[in-house]
């Protein structure tokens, strides 16, 4: 599988599916599966058992993982979804950049 260019903490927009157009922060990135979990996107109901510490059981809503191909990073300059590229900055460090504006991410 190709290297995943989206990391935890990135601001992304959903490109397809029931939550198309929604934006959120990446909570968890799973490169081995090629999936990401985005805050407030792909909400599912899950049965939760009560724990010993007194946490209440019942049905809880949480985010489900979605395929990384269905999200795009939001360009910090244009505020629109963009693809991501890699280049070396002046210090010789490899950095990600937005293909639309050229801004570093």
Describe the structure.
The chain contains no helices and 10 strands. It is an all-beta fold and 105 residues long. It folds into 2 domains: 1-71, SH3 type barrels; 75-105. A hairpin with a 4-residue loop joins strand 2 and strand 3. The radius of gyration is 17 Å and the shape is elongated.
* CATH architecture title of the largest domain: Roll
The CATH topology of the largest domain comes to: SH3 type barrels
The main pleated sheet reads as: 6 strands, antiparallel
- Spatial strand order of the main sheet: 6-3-2-1-7-8
Number of domains: 2
Keywords:
105 residues; elongated; 0% helix; SH3 type barrels
Short synopsis of the structure:
The protein is mostly beta strands. The chain contains no helices and ten strands. The chain folds into two domains: 71 residues, SH3 type barrels; 31 residues.
